[in-house]
Amino acid sequence: MKAAYVPKTKFSDKTANDLTQAAIRSIQLLFEDSFATRLSSTGTYRQDVGRFVPSQQRKGLPDIFGVVEGLAVFIEIKMPGDRLSADQVQTITELRAAGAWVLIASNYEDVYNSLTVDFREHIFNHYALGRTLPES
């Protein structure tokens, strides 16, 4: 199901970085007391050892991690023409099997519609099954 409309915003989805920032900010604006951040799998240059050190993060994690109403939210940004890697397919499958909500988005309309319709339905279904909100 799609939202009735997508509001005009200052967000851009022309680049992956723009869309990532728009998705993070949308989670924060649409859901009170939510958390969202970019996951960075790039390594760092270590001056003390004089070389680039790879990230310790698992390969294939989506670009964005969030928590909304006690539920894990992941968003993978894939611009038109990009494809999921085998590691990404495997990780997304495992995240969904563990109960996380995962979106693969290529534009702002995907993000907005999925958060306002599909994810809200996911929240309802999760708690309608008798699960309770986590304790603070």
UniProtKB/TrEMBL annotation:
SMART domains the record matches: VRR_NUC (SM00990)
InterPro entries noted in UniProt: Restrct_endonuc-II-like (IPR011335), tRNA_endonuc-like_dom_sf (IPR011856), VRR_NUC (IPR014883)
Short name of any one Pfam family annotated for the protein: VRR_NUC
Entry-linked Gene3D superfamilies: 3.40.1350.10
Keywords recorded for this protein, A-Z: Hydrolase, Nuclease
VRR-NUC domain mapped to chain residues: 30-109
Domain of life the protein comes from: Bacteria
Keyword Hydrolase: yes
Keyword Signal: no
Cofactor(s) essential for the protein: Mg(2+)
Protein's UniProt name: VRR-NUC domain-containing protein
